Sequence to fold (873 residues):
Amino acid sequence: MRRRGGIVAALGLALLFGGIGAGAAGASRSPDEMFARGCEQYSRGDYAAAADSYREILSAGIRNSRVFYNLGNACFRRNRIGEAILYYEKALRLDPTDEDARENLRYANLRIRDRIPADDSPFLLALAVRARDLLRLEGVTRLFLGLYLAGMFLCALWILANSRRPAPHLGIAVLVLFVLSLACGGWMVLQGRARASDDEAIVLVEKVEVLSGPGPENTLLASVHEGTKVRIHNRREAWVQVTLPDGRAGWMRGEALGVI
Amino acid sequence: MRPFRIVSFLLLSALAATPLLSQEPQVRASVAPDRVEEGGQVTLTVEISGGSQAPDEPPDLTQVPGFLLAAGPSVSSYFQWINGRTSASRTYTYTLLPQGRGTRTIPPLALKIGGRVLRTEPVRVDVVPRSSTGGGGNPPPRGSPFADPGTRRRLAPPPTAPSLLIVEASVDKPVVYPGEQVTLVYRVYTQFEIAQMTLKDQPTYQGFWVEDLKTDDKYEARPVARKEGSFVEYTVLKKALFPTNPGSFTIPPITFHFAVRRRGMDPFESRFFQPTEGLFRSSGAVTIQVKDLPEQGRPPEFKGAVGRFTLEVTTDRKQTRVNDAVALRIRVEGQGNINTLGTPALPEIQDFKRYEPKVEEEMRAKEGTLVGAKTWEYVLIPLAPGEQVIPPVRFAFFDPLTQRYRLLENDPIRLSVAKGDLAEMPVQAAPDRTEIPVLGSDIRYIKQAAGRVKDEGTIPYAGRGFLALLLAPLALNASLLLIARRRAALSGSEALVRRRRAGRAARKRLRRARTHLAHDQSGQFYQEMASALTFYLADKAGVSATGLTYDRIGEILSERGVEPEMGQRFRRCLEACDFARFAPASSAKEEMERAFAEAGKVIEDLEGKVKVP
Fold:
């Protein structure tokens, strides 16, 4: 009799919790559910709804490379090239190893009005940038930690061994690991800075004018079109100072830009 | 005799030519009759008199507004020579059909004669409405005995006067789409008996693709009532026109020449003896409006086909082998202009070699509309084995009845291609191979992989945990180092410690000895000096200081690699101290000073020279 009562109580509790869980899910879906819903809407061809679903995930403060990538695709399908490029760039910031995002970014860049000058950075620098993007920041961090902790472990062994008799081989190993982890640490910081930087932006409006100073009374220098990437230097109220892809600098309205 | 005749003829000709050349040619145009009923014909005569030269070319009457040239020119010349006076004339005769009503004017006609241009006077022709003579206005009811055209024609005026022979051109629809069939019918309405009919002037159907719709060789007579009276109707020509471009197009009139025979009053009069009269009749012009095909809903596959069609795609077999040809037939059948059908879009089929299609057309008129079928037969050679799919063929056309575009598409055809025999399969030469073709480009698809959607925007090394992770092993190692040091100091070896501290202990003893020296206590001074030296050596060598004899000291010094000279100095110094200690007389102060300095120097020199065993 007692046992049966226990079962009934357990069932009741389960129902109660289940009900609460379902209620919570109805009110605000989890990011995973929103993601799945967005993908389903996308595959149905309802790109506007898919974009809204992905944006909802982002509005919850979650920055995720897959979400950015899929949102970029949804924007591309709706012919919003500027936004698509912005989100591909954001996805690449979080995951520079994502070949899909890189390819789609290249494809989207074919659609923009302004000609992007070919990347003419020196070979070694280009190589360094490519090397930097071989692993995503999480991977580099893990690598650094692994090397560092291994070095520290070997160092401890060396201290213990050395108190009895000198251990030069262990000492060399410790030194090598130390140098490696130092390099890896540098790589990690480099990538971290790239991820955290907010000095690049994409033009989101069809056309925006570049003036010589922060104010409409200044001389018109150029006009750039949707999808063009600019570098931000300075901000003053609603105006930002930017460098255009061809190296020219000027001021434009900040609301025309989406910061990567 | 014969040469004389020729010469005399030449002379006569020369004589005749002289006055002729001096005469001025004159041109004159006249028309008969100058008053004609609508649908009648007039004869225009252009006469050139005086002068012997013929004009370079006869006057052109094809472009005279308001008139249609039915026949002509026929040329006749007249030459007279009477009593030295010559008169010559040349006459061009045209048959013209005035168009419309009212006064029509033939403008001055220009004739170029011998380098001069002569012009005729303008000629007026009045075209009056067709009179109702012959019961035109109020036709008698059909079946009345008076309706017989023959009875009424008895009082008919001559053929140039109102004559009830009408040629009419009509189209079934005045407004069409490009490519839509419009049927043009030429009908003849007559109250005469027509003995013969010849096509005089075939119009050019500019802007149309023309197909003759076969009419019977024998014209079928059909009695009809018109407002002018009762007629017999013959359909003489039927054409299917397909406009090629939008716009407004006018089909110029067609002209026939008829040989007609009036029916005489006398029923016994033999028709064979009755003469026929020649009559020209032309139809009116017909204007056809061709409107643009609608833009809305036009599929990209549309290539201009207009009508109603069906599409059928077949292959001659469903199973084949590599390199075994398959025939793919695309058949479009229906109403419309089969000739101008564009090839339906056959999509690119991978793994197949394709040859240019063989095209067959068949067309026939069915109840006045042109129907037919066009077949494209492709030969496909499968290049790779497996289940191959021939994608749907699409064919789009515009249906003018529903005014909509329609897209026909067949189901994809599945072909199972078996591997050919290895021996039969030719080894594909390298140049035949192609790159994997780029058939399209698009963005890559979204990422759908399951898995938690985590925030990835943080910088992993910026947290405190990371710093702790870095510092913890560092602190651990530092403390490990300290402990190792401590343990070495504790348990490492006393000998080491004694060795390390030997110098310090010796100096301490020497300082004490110096105090004794200052207080002039020579016994204690020398004892202290001796123990400083003994203990120093014992500490350094790691042996006990008690019971060290001079011999043992010598052994130790030589064992520990100290130079013999150095050993001698040490021993002498120690001996001196021992000697002075046990000597009864107190030694002099200078002596003590010297011994002290020597002991300090020996210890100093010995530092680092005693080797560890």
